[in-house]
Model the fold of this input.
Amino acid sequence: MALLLTSVFKPYAVDDDFGRKENVMELFHNQVTREQGVFSLRMNHPSAGLHLIAENLRTPTMVLDFPSMSEFERELTKGYDTVGISFIVPNFKKAQHMARRVRELAPRTRIVLGGHGTMIPEVERLIPCDAVCRGEGVGFMRRLFGEPDEAPIRHPKVESAFNRHFLGAPTGGTSAMLMPGNGCPNGCDFCCTTHFFKRQYIPYLRTGREVFDACCGLEASMGANEFFVLDENFLKYRERTLELLSLMEQHGKQWSFGLFSSAESINQYGIELLQRLGIFFLWIGVESKRHVYAKNKGVDMKALIQKLRSHGIVVLASGILFLEHHTRENIDEDIDYLVGMEADFVQFMQLGPLPGTALYERIEQSGRLRREVPYEEWHGQHRIWFEHPAFTAEESERWLREAFERDYLVNGPSMLRMAETYLAGYQRLAGATDAYLGGRRELLRRRLVGHWPSIPVLAALGRTSRARQRARELGERLERLLGPMDAATKAKAAVVGATALKESLRLATVGSVRQPPTRWTPYRLEPVPLATQVRSFVELNLVQKPALYAKSAAASGLGLFGAMLRGF
Ligand code: B12
Ligand code: SF4
Done:
């Protein structure tokens, strides 16, 4: 008996029968640094939920991340008796196509659907399947396979990101995904995760000790000392956080964490505690100035964000456009509010009624849902799919793009802001009162050294004269603090300069499209033969990518010329 767990198939972010070019399979380039051109951060993230399920079953399981359709079909022929497909709403058609192919190619194979896409009304009528998991997947699959549901949760060993590039150059780093729990009890009306998990928090790691042990395991097995935490509101659980920190200090662990947390949760702690905990990246839902969600009541957002930044913590401020009260006159207030936060990163997301949320119910009941818009366009980075009192769908596209551009023009490339934040934290910790906090200063120094080669490139290629000037000043401050740039850093800066130019050329000719490589991860199964991986590499790089580049080059009016340049 064997299980195949799969993500939906590539190519992603192209206009075809199954998807749209705006639906990018990347966090930053999709919805954060999307208008920052060559300065956009590029990376992919594995399908964490599938690895969590696979790790916690006894059944032999293969996790397939980012397959092409032909790779998925070839995998099916290996004789799995169950296939689990994970999908979100905009990937509905991909999941439907995959399930139909399973019925054709392996009619006796059981199909299980999971992930947020399962909230689509009547999904079992629209997609061939035998079971649907709406909500938590580990318990669901254990029950489906007749395995003990109450067995302790084991944490999978998954890197948080791969295929990382900045300025056209690959970037390193070993960071792991940490999954302490799913869901959030706060119940914000637009939020998918709170509704999907029925306004409950489902902890996988209940105590600080369990989080600590999981991190030790990831450190030992993967060499990770940085963790990207997939938990909607990690800091909400104060006791767990404090126990984790106390264990880290006892054992001298200088780990770092990237987190999502709401302002009310962050405000439970003093800034020094957050520094000690090693938070290097914090995603905060600022949402809107006028429509203040309960989690943000009474919080001075700008003061909070500036305090975090001045202590070396990089902040992503997230906001929602096309809220129901937005008009042409007042939407700028929210855009300026978000831009004025001067965060390191800003995400603008269009208000999106997604099935299962209170927002969806309201919009649907008032007859304002635009049902004719196909699901692949329900993603929040192109056009709204409901009747807005003040904006048409076309206008929502333009306002969204302009909001991102405004942030970029006013605040400069996010990478520059990040380096400024690290520098501020490094300088502030000069007076660190104890060795543990002093260790945090050393980490910030290392981050700065890592960023240094890109600073001259920012100074040369920044879009505005102000951004270029800021980068020059930053370079000078770094020299004063860390001493002159050594030969190795200078050489790296030269290489990054060259890759940045090549990347700029690529963006101008074939666009920004990029595809993640396919990944097979066997759990209690034989390793995947090298030949399969080589074949996948060849197919992706010599067949699929050139075809995609040629298509986008043709679309951008430059024909094959651009596609050929890519080959160099
Ligand atoms: C990481 C992430 C991504 C990664 C995805 C990486 C990947 N390999 O797929 C990136 C950054 C690329 C991404 C992109 C987008 N994402 Co996203 N993403 C997330 C995020 C932050 C975490 C998901 C996660 O891993 N959680 C941790 C795991 C453990 O939980 P889980 O995935 O829910 O899995 C559990 C269950 O759902 C279930 N399960 C899941 N799959 C399966 C399959 C089977 C067979 C079974 C039985 C069970 C099961 O079991 C798991 C364990 O309990 C969520 C928000 C959130 N906090 O959940 C949004 C979220 C999933 N993304 C969302 C969206 C909309 C997008 C984008 C369209 C961008 C956008 N506008 O927000 C793009 C689409 C990209 C594309 N082309 O597909 C929405 C989905 C909305 C919906 N109702 O469909 C979410 C919920 C965020 C939101 N807006 O509220 N995303
Ligand atoms: S606080 Fe964040 S995660 Fe929780 S319900 Fe609100 S938006 Fe969702």
In short: The mean pLDDT is 94. The CA atoms of residues 13 and 498 lie 27 Å apart. The chain has 22 helices and 17 strands.
